[in-house]
Amino acid sequence: MYFQPRWESFGKTRAYSIMSRCIRWHSESANFIFGAHTNHVSNSKSQEFSFLKITMQRKENFTIEEKALVVQFVSDNRDILENKANNTRLQKSRRDKWMELTEKMAATGIKRDWKDIRGAYQRWKLAAKKTISCYRKHATGTGGGPALPESSGLDFTISEICPEDFVEDENPHDSDSLRRTNPTLNMVEKSENEVTYELDPTTGELVLIQSNLPQADPSCSTEVGKRSHGDRTSPEPVPKKIKKNMTAYEAAMLELQTKKMDETLRYMEEKHNLEIQIMKQEHDLRMEILKEQLEKERFLQGPEEKKN
């Protein structure tokens, strides 16, 4: 039995010191009793971890040639390896393709497991997504910030193999998604009610060219000059000016896009005219060749008729 003193007869400091001594004595007793078992468990765990460290050796990194070989093989068999369907037949086809790649690499003296190759390709794809995302953000930035990560040509090659995996989610209410696609698509929403503006080069303002917005029927219009509520009246609000829905950058991009379209149309028209001229020249040459053949046949048939 433990002696249970009355805490009222001791001060707080004395009581706390006695309690701490009791707790320390109990902990030392527990360590003395269970110490052997604890040491045995810790020794077995340390031996297990040391065994894992010995057996698990780090594998060699993929060289640039090996990466290029894997990416090229995936590109040639993308209909199977990049197929998002999940069924038994397709899984077997994927496994067979990875094993085929393993055999090809083994023929060149490179011995790797097909699971390691598949896992490495998945890691390269994730790294390519991160790198290309950094480049896209940097392209719409204003300068400054940390340096861009180094990118190899394989990142963009992988993005061309599976472009659907590199599509970023865009939020129309978030400014980060602006100017990542065609700037003309970000300025005008596709709808049935379209409004067309043109940039005046002299004043730099937008001029309304065409509007398909539904017009109000004058027969149904009502006079809304003043709205009265009791003795209080509110005047009709002054109509606000239409704000520009494009910044200077977007207007400049729209102008460049328009010039590009005009140049493209002019180039296509010139190309069409040249093709017509070439076809006409080819037709004339064929007709001349045909005439020469006919004259040659007539010339050869003439002496035979005279002999007869």
Automatic annotation (TrEMBL):
Q: Where is this region: Disordered?
A: 215-239
Report which superkingdom the organism of origin falls in. Answer: Eukaryota
All copies of the Myb/SANT-like DNA-binding domain together span: 58-132
Q: Which PANTHER family match?
A: APONTIC, REGULATORY PROTEIN ZESTE
The organism encoding this protein is Cephus cinctus
Q: Which InterPro entries match?
A: Myb_DNA-bind_5 (IPR028002)
Q: Which UniProt keywords apply?
A: Transcription, Transcription regulation
Q: How does it assemble?
A: Self-associates forming complexes of several hundred monomers.
- Please give the Pfam families that the UniProt record associates with this protein: Myb_DNA-bind_5
Instruction: Give start-end positions of Basic and acidic residues composition bias.
Output: 224-234
What is known about what this protein does?
Answer: Involved in transvection phenomena (= synapsis-dependent gene expression), where the synaptic pairing of chromosomes carrying genes with which zeste interacts influences the expression of these genes. Zeste binds to DNA and stimulates transcription from a nearby promoter.
Coiled-coil segments, which residues? none
Q: What is the official name of this protein in its record?
A: Regulatory protein zeste
